[in-house]
Amino acid sequence: MSVLAIAEQRGGALRGTTLEILTAGRGLADALGVELIAVLLGPPGLAAETGRLGSYGADRVLTGFSDAFAEYSPEAYTELVAKAAQENGGKAILFAASAQGKDLAPRVAARLKAGLASDVTEVGVAEGRVVAVRPAYAGKVFMRVGFTSEPAMLSVRPRAYKAAEAPREAQVEELAVGGEAVSRVKVRAVEEQQKERPDVAEAEIVVSGGRGLGSPENWKLLEELADALGPGAALGASRAVVDAGWRPHGEQVGQTGKVVAPPLYFAIGISGAIQHLAGMQTAGCIVAVNKDAEAPIFKIADYGIVGDVLEVLPRLTEEIKKLRS
Amino acid sequence: MNIIVCVKRVPDSESRIAKSKDGLAVDTQGVKFVLNPYDEYAVEEALKLREAAADGSVTVMTLGGEESKETLRTALAMGADQAVLLKGRSSVDGLGTAEKLAEVIRDREYDLVLFGKQAIDDDNLQVPAMVAELLGLPCATVVTELRVDGGAVTATREIEGGHEVVEFELPGVIAAQKGLNDPRYPSLKGIMQAKKKPLEELDVGDADSRLEIIEVMNPPVRSAGQIVGEGADAVPELVRKLRDEAKVI
């Protein structure tokens, strides 16, 4: 019997969310009294990363290395993950709720005829069965759900768990690779627009801008603040500015964008529509800057400054830089 | 080109949603329901593809109750040719719903099945990839750009910090992300015509749920914090508080 955590790589290195799901998986495996197995699929060079999976709590690591897995390959991954779960008595399978995890988990769930809870923020065991907490309506409500099928399939929201070391000497075993169906979906290119910054859903700090910035050109002020805050900071945007074409929709925070819960969130020139608040209200600390003292964002912000964002922003960047130097 | 677009009726994104009195569901009283925003991109893309191919048809499909007819009519008013209502309740998780849809789609003629990438009520992001798996079809989710050239599909999907370009051969499944296109508004003429377009009804029964809701909870209430001050002069005090009080920088 086991809990499986599906590791994820990009460019030959583990993604940070993998360590988070190992931590969630370690807790679940202990609660169920079973072992934690990490499944790592990727290109051959990835073998160097198996040690880290043990450091973060995996008892065993099942590897499938092939040049064909350098990029995510939905159909082949589905087959290998489903087989690994079946052969190892998988009681639960954890994925990161990442671009890959959100694509792969449903396919595996359909293959195994098992229920899937998406984007969970908490997983545990109650009365012998796996239970999870997950947001719905972009976080306007949360649901505690229980599984009535096995394995319990879960995708875990980035940053819901803080990666914690739980070192052990993981036993590494190779999955038989090569017999699976060739994926009909071929990845032709991966274009990374902002390598230097994390994704808004996975960032430690999110600096979001709205209409109050006045024009897309003023985004450089927001970028300077994000730079001053360090490599863990990502840019976010309100729906209004995405709809206006000022920013790419990949940055949108809220109900038709991404739901985020970073330890620190800056809402700059964002008034705070319901659909935006739903997407960021579980952030640790919220800082709002807005010229309108009556803006709804101030009703949930921990700290606020009322004023012209174009004056406040450069000063904020300067003060943060001072602090960091 | 024959295209099936699966849609859902959901509360408008501006609605206030809270748990129901018994704590087992959400209270949707007085809430305005709309065609799921991501499904609008799917419908629009289907219409564009049909127009470019200059033949074929667009069928919109949903699993739901009588009230979902309104949602189907919205898609018909945008320009879809016909609609199918699968009468039954959707499941808590995505699989039961995917099974009901796949069962009906399997027997129809189609080149492409389109979805919105997620319904903004349950936020499951499951049904498109599950339908693909159940029908044995290739699939691309979270698609922001789509090209169909004969039988060849090139789709750009959103990934963390960038995009991934994938290719596959029809038939297949695509789940639309915001940015794929600018959905048209139904015209008055479209709305009139929609009333006369065929709307088929099938009793499929309720979908099986493999998750059960134990409890619905409202998010923790956040109270207003402090206004540190006005204008740029308040910044040093804000930064001090972030460092010493909140300890976040």
Explain what this protein looks like in three dimensions.
The complex is a heterodimer of chains A (325) and B (249). Chain A has eight helices and 18 strands. Chain A is an alpha/beta fold. The radius of gyration of chain A is 21 Å and the shape is elongated. Chain A starts with a strand and ends with a helix. Chain B is of the alpha/beta class. Chain B has helices at 37-53, 68-78, 95-106, 127-135, 188-194, 235-244, and strands at 3-6, 9-11, 18-19, 26-27, 33-35, 58-64, 82-87, 112-116, 139-149, 152-159, 162-169, 172-176, 199-203, 211-217, 226-230. In chain B, the strands form three sheets. A nine-stranded mixed beta sheet of chain B has the order 11-10-9-12-8-1-6-7-13, with helices on both faces. Chain B has a two-stranded antiparallel sheet with strand order 2-5. The longest helix of chain B is centred in the N-terminal third of the chain and has 17 residues, at 37-53. Classes of the chains: A alpha/beta (325), B alpha/beta (249).
